[in-house]
Design brief:
474 residues; Elongation Factor Tu (Ef-tu), domain 3; 2 domains
């Protein structure tokens, strides 16, 4: 992220400096100079005019229909007019201050919604929601990871990690993920090199595997979206597609990246017990409920999606009440975390939004998106979203800020804003997850983990584009 932050700012200044101040030919006639004015020119703006006897400084008297008029004693004819106040570097400097101010204003506007949802998530967690998801995932996990003993601590930590991710509890997911990776290293016959189980576990993590994109819905609501939950179904479909693809690719690429010979003996995994069909009830309930919800929302579109947020709030509180949780006290406890989280993101928002605003004001953003417009059109992606897609794998906070900026600039309910929100909710920060999880276990050779993670990100990004167009804008 250091490179991204510094690079955007440095390129903005360099690109704007190379352009120079705008200039145009003006016509002098009867003591009046008229010239086509660039954007931002207003009465009182100073300009430089190359006259027969040298450069003159004159002041714009009026601007009408895109043309600036100013009195001039120069002889009739054509002169060259320079607009130093409209130099791109001035726009870059102004954009940095405007973006810093709007970043703080945006963070403040998020406090209420983040406080609400983190309070609700705390109620679900206290009511055993994570335990239910863990039970639902267990029959699937023991078959995805046959090399991990079903009762080994690694299996339990992986299940809890994915359960937390499914519910959008990122803060809880990371400790479980680190614990899972450390326990998997105990089963590693070649220490320091990722096992197949490690790569598969990270592939599932980096593909997003999120069911409740509450963070993005919070942003959309704060930006006055008419339907903040419109991203729910496309996000669910995109993350599911990316997760399935990640699992398949992790298996397919194993022979291409063989592990080194074993250097130590480890515990062998006994075959998973068949178990009772009752063990699959939570799994069927979870996936069946999601499938039903997707079907209903897709069939009824906005008639159903507008009910998601109210029913989600009621359902989360009802789960707590049914489990005899003191919903008010628990909600307040979680809401405090929401307030702290909203204020904690201010530095991240300021950093990335200032860098992006400077990059856009310099004109470099238009150059990048314009040069790749053909590729974007071929896959159906608006060019404005391309930087967000590229940033998502590198920085979670950066992508969050960038997606927020896109939703604010283009509108949360626009095609660009909806795709940006869906991208943010349907994938994970691949390189962050790889560095933290592998680093915690001392893994220096990741084998095919990076390849699978990046490809699953690409699939998630493309899925976000296609599913938004299909579900929301078709």
């Amino acid at each position: 992220m250091n490179f991204v932050f510094y690079g955007l700012i440095a390129l903005s200044i360099l690109f704007s400096a190379l352009q120079g101040a705008p200039e145009a030919d003006g016509q002098v006639q009867a003591g009046q100079l008229v010239v086509v004015a660039p954007a931002g020119v207003a009465p009182g703006t100073e300009v430089e005019v190359d006259g027969p006897s040298g450069s003159l400084r004159l002041t714009v008297e009026k601007v009408d229909a895109g043309k600036a008029s100013l009195p001039s004693e120069l002889p009739d004819g054509t002169v060259r007019v320079h607009f130093p106040a409209q130099h791109p570097i001035a726009a870059v400097g102004k954009a940095s201050l405007d973006a810093a101010k709007s970043s703080v204003e945006l963070a403040i506007s998020l406090i209420g919604a983040m406080t609400l949802f983190l309070g609700l998530m705390k109620v679900v967690e206290a009511a055993g929601g994570m335990d239910f998801v863990a039970r639902a995932l267990r029959p699937v996990m023991v078959r995805l990871f046959p090399e991990v003993p079903p009762d080994h601590p690694a299996m339990g930590a992986m299940i809890m990690n994915l359960a937390a991710n499914v519910l959008g509890l990122g803060n809880a997911a990371t400790p479980f993920g680190i614990k899972a990776m450390q326990e998997l290293e105990r089963l590693n016959p070649h220490p320091g090199t990722a096992t197949n189980a490690m790569v598969l576990f990270l592939a599932i993590n980096t593909s997003g595997v999120a069911v409740l994109p509450t963070g993005v819905m919070v942003v959309r609501a704060s930006l006055k979206s008419l339907d903040p939950a419109a991203i729910f179904v496309p996000t669910l479909l995109a993350t599911f597609t990316a997760t399935v693809a990640a699992v398949v690719m992790a298996r397919l690429f194993q022979p291409l990246f063989p592990a080194p010979p074993a250097t130590r003996m480890v515990e062998n995994s006994p075959p998973a017990a068949p178990g009772s069909w009752l063990d699959w009830l939570p799994t069927l309930a979870l996936f069946g409920g999601l499938a039903t919800l997707v079907t209903v929302v897709f069939q009824l579109r906005d008639k159903a999606s507008i009910w998601i947020l109210p029913l989600l709030i009621l359902g989360m509180l009802t789960v707590g009440a049914a489990r005899r949780i003191k919903v008010y006290e628990v909600f307040i406890q979680g809401a405090k975390d929401g307030f702290e989280s909203a204020t904690r993101i201010i530095p991240f928002l300021v950093a990335i939004l200032v860098a992006v605003a400077m990059f856009r004001a310099s004109g470099a953003m238009d150059l990048v998106t314009g040069s790749l417009a053909g590729v974007c059109a071929w896959v159906g992606m608006p060019p404005e979203v391309l930087p967000m897609a590229m940033l998502r794998s590198l920085s979670g906070s950066g992508a969050y800020a960038f997606s927020t900026e896109l939703m604010k600039t283009h509108g949360p309910d626009s095609l660009v804003g909806t795709i940006a929100g869906t991208m943010q909710g349907s994938s994970e920060t691949t390189f962050y997850v790889l560095s933290v999880y592998f680093g915690s276990a001392g893994i220096s050779k990741g084998r095919h983990a990076v390849v699978v993670g990046v490809l699953s990100d690409v699939i998630a990004m493309l899925g976000a584009v296609w599913f938004v167009r299909w579900v929301v804008f078709s």
